[in-house]
């Protein structure tokens, strides 16, 4: 029997009704994290968690109703939470401790959540496998010889292995959705501007969004209702109050779902089967499912990397050992900055800073960055056109299930190609959800497969409504990875 651990919704209710306490939930979460140390999903524990748990208990006892009362969760290690190390998986920030809370952390804490610790990630969120972390790779709980995806692989593995019911990651080109797919959980990337980026360490600012991982549609809606909404401290924050809920199967009748034709090539048999199964379930519930072409998507990977790398090269200029993190002294200021960056950054981060700087440099700007910005517009226009005819679009989240540790580390281009189904969504600023859609058996091991649904800008709520409907129909069934269920 597949195991079902309690969801965040269950836990908050149990705390609220006095059946358990935030302190007990915190202890249990720590014990599960300890027992699953082999996964390397959680890289540091929050020393302030006991105090927060006690405060939440006091607030509940005083009669407050808190949507996330006592719910333990982990944050990707690029989210600032006061008093926690925020390393971004990098040596250069190894000794950095956050002096403040990100807006999402403030909101989670106000809602009664308890941050247990920080989750592993690719260095500065650059990667699709969590293998570029200075803390070492995170393992996939379904098969520990495989990657959990990335860059938010620690946050995904923590939810997939039942260490916590929900977690947060960040998604610049797929870093929430792809690891969600590869570990068999939900992962939502909201509309750009829907969730404040204040306190998220920037990778590529025009693409970054924070998003949740969860094992139920209700939990996704619960967390989004807490973290979304306008924030004056993020200049790109939108004023769109969250109204997330789960839907029912009858809402699928007449829903127009467009299957992205460009995503149908190059998938494994298991990914094809999972997508077909999902489309059959939608048709069975009365949805109108048809193919639609978005011709500029074939340029999405090149466009994404020509925008993400220049933005990263600018954002990462601040890590020179003068203000943040570790400083390597070496004679004069320039020597010290050079030595700090040489020692502090890993190879993939250096590669991206070099390519990004080159693409922005005088004489190349028009050929690369500026042209990429124009293609970005064409991609956004393709989506806008498709949403004239469809309520939602669908594609695989990843063309293949979890790959082996080390399989793509020597070949950057094959690692970049893992993002083929996800990056266009960030370029267009749209919301998208990866849902667990089945399994593909590879070498005798069941590996999760995800399907991605994309909604028009600001229609994020459609995605949790859809997830609720799919769960009610049995078209989505989330399982905890075997061996981690009890
Ligand atoms: N894999 C993509 C990259 O390396 C996406 C990463 C992300 O979304 N943070 O840029």
UniProtKB/TrEMBL annotation:
The superkingdom of the source organism is Bacteria
Q: Does the keyword Ligase apply?
A: yes
Positions of the Amidase domain:
25-463
Q: Sorted alphabetically, which Gene3D superfamilies does this protein's record hold?
A: Amidase signature (AS) domain (3.90.1300.10)
The record's listing under InterPro entries reads: Amidase, Amidase_CS, Amidase_dom, AS_sf, GatA
Q: Name one GO molecular function term.
A: transferase activity
What keywords tag this UniProt record?
ATP-binding, Ligase, Nucleotide-binding, Protein biosynthesis, Transferase
The record describes its quaternary structure and partners as: Heterotrimer of A, B and C subunits.
Purpose of the protein: Allows the formation of correctly charged Gln-tRNA(Gln) through the transamidation of misacylated Glu-tRNA(Gln) in organisms which lack glutaminyl-tRNA synthetase. The reaction takes place in the presence of glutamine and ATP through an activated gamma-phospho-Glu-tRNA(Gln).
Designated name of the protein:
Glutamyl-tRNA(Gln) amidotransferase subunit A
The organism encoding this protein is Deinococcus terrestris
* Gene coding for it: gatA
């Amino acid at each position: 029997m597949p195991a079902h651990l309690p969801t965040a919704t269950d836990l908050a209710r149990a705390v609220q009704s006095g059946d358990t306490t935030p302190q007990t939930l915190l202890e249990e979460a720590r014990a599960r994290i300890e027992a699953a140390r082999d996964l390397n999903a959680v890289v540091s524990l929050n020393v302030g968690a006991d105090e927060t748990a006690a405060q939440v208990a006091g607030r509940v006892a005083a009669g407050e109703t808190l949507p996330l009362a006592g719910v333990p969760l982990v944050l990707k290690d690029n989210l600032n939470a006061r008093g926690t190390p925020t390393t971004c998986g990098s040596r250069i920030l190894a000794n950095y401790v956050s002096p403040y809370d990100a807006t999402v952390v403030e909101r989670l804490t106000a809602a009664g959540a308890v941050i247990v610790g920080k989750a592993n990630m690719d260095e500065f969120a650059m990667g699709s496998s969590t293998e570029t972390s200075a803390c070492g790779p995170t393992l996939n709980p379904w098969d520990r010889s495989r990657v959990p995806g990335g860059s938010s692989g620690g946050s995904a593995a923590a939810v997939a292995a039942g260490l916590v019911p929900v977690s947060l990651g960040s998604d610049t080109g797929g870093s929430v959705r792809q690891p969600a797919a590869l570990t068999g959980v939900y992962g939502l990337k909201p509309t750009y501007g829907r969730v404040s980026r204040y306190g998220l360490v920037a990778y590529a600012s025009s693409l970054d969004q924070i998003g949740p991982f969860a094992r139920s549609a209700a939990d996704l809606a619960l967390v989004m209702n807490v973290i979304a909404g306008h924030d004056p401290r993020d200049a790109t924050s939108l004023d769109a109050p969250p109204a997330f809920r789960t839907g029912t199967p009858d809402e699928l009748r007449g829903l127009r779902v467009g299957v992205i034709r460009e995503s149908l090539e190059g998938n494994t048999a298991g990914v094809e089967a999972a997508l077909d199964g999902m489309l059959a379930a939608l048709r069975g519930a009365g949805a109108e499912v048809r193919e639609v072409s978005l011709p500029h998507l074939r340029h999405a990977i090149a466009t994404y990397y020509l925008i993400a790398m220049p933005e990263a090269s600018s954002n990462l200029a601040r890590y020179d050992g003068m203000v943040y993190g570790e400083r390597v002294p070496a004679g004069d200021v320039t020597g010290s900055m050079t030595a700090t960056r040489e020692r502090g950054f890993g190879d993939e981060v250096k590669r991206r800073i070099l390519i990004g700087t080159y693409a922005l440099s005088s004489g190349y700007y028009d050929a690369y960055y500026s042209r990429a910005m124009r293609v970005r517009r064409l991609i956004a226009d393709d989506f806008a056109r498709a949403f004239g005819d469809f309520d939602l679009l669908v594609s695989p989240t990843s063309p293949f299930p979890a790959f082996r540790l080390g399989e793509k580390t020597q070949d950057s281009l094959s690692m970049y190609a893992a993002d083929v189904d996800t990056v266009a969504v960030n370029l267009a600023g749209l919301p998208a959800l990866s849902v667990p859609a089945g399994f593909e058996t590879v070498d005798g091991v069941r590996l999760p497969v995800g399907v991605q649904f994309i909604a028009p800008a600001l229609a994020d709520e459609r995605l949790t409504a859809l997830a609720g409907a799919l769960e009610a129909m049995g078209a989505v069934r989330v399982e905890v990875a075997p061996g981690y269920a009890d």
